[in-house]
Amino acid sequence: MGKRVSSKSFRNLIFLFLLILQTCPNLTKAGSIVSSLPGFQGPLPFELETGYIGVGESEDVQLFYYFIKSESNPETDPLLLWLTGGPGCTSFCSVAYEIGPIKFEPFLYDGTLPKLILNPYSWTKVASIIFVDQPVGTGFSYAKTAKASQSTTSKNSDQLYEFLKKWLIDHPEFISNPFYVGGNSYGGVMVPIVSQLISNGNEVEVEPIINLKGYMVGNPGTGNGNYAVPHAHGLGLISNELYQSLKDSCKGEYQRIDPNNALCLQHMQTYDQLLSGVNPPHILERSCPFASPGPTKKFGEKIPTIEIYSQKVQELRIQERTPIKCRMDGYKLAYHWSNNKNVQEALHIREGSIGEWVRCNLSLSFTDDVDNVVPYHANLSIKGYRSLVYSGDHDMIVPHLETQAWIKSLNYQIIDDWRQWIVEDQVAGYT
Question: What is the pTM of this model?
């Protein structure tokens, strides 16, 4: 029998291996630097890296990522893993529409490649961010086998933890940086689970040790869908009378309604009719057709595909640059940009790895096998990790009432009164 290696000696070997990688970073680099992007004028004023990391059995899942280095002090600034919602919405949503350094010029598609401009409010001004296309089948991430294309919340969480460990081994210069996990909407389900996996791994000294400091979630899903009705009432979308009838007949259960409860079903039908013309994620914005990856039925109507939309644009022969009035029209720009051959070459996309790129893949083979993530929040809180939770008050998909309710269930001690949140001398919200 061979001689056993002590855990201390093993950690020293790992450290030596990481040191070798740091001094010879090109030995295993999974990513490639992108110095310019089609549609953006001139070289990029920030450092962008894209690439794939194989995870799962035989690395049959290839997760694609965009990594943007902090524009301030990347040696010491926080490192953030950002998980976009869906499930199935590409991380490019966050890069170009939310917290990343670029965004599209807000003009309707006119047949030419959409133009990119800088976002002055990018979070990459103060942090380095890894944006991952997850779960498998999202964005440019792909599976090598049919079996690998099937995923669950639990499996995706394990694969993200594996991804992160491999990414840090590939980028050892970031191992000591303060690390956070962040995400919004359904990403808010993934964030506490992945944070818990990191914490568990650190406790048993799984290498590399990740310098986890905390996590952040925006309009985060938790698995409790019973707050949409009271939220709609609070926003004045339904009458006091209907709200009272819903409360009496449904007994507070609006998500899994007893099919034998005819009165509750009747009131819910009225509720659905009243909200049918409202844009659920942003109730004050226009309700516009969703750019889906294929013909899909919703409210009994066929939703236009991006191809049909493009044909209509060409038929109209738009001569002047028309400002975008609908958020969905802005999202459609990403289809024309990301499916461009020159763009995919610039991003180092593996040819033939996916078919058409779609912003949100509605046909994922994905199962949500986690009913409630609040216990993860509670456990991370007990362990002393910091958390930032924020919600918009016009979101019907994840109402802020739901967020407030699960936070209250954690029994935190209140150390600051409910007060205004001020930005540039204006009330921007409440905390």
Answer: 0.86
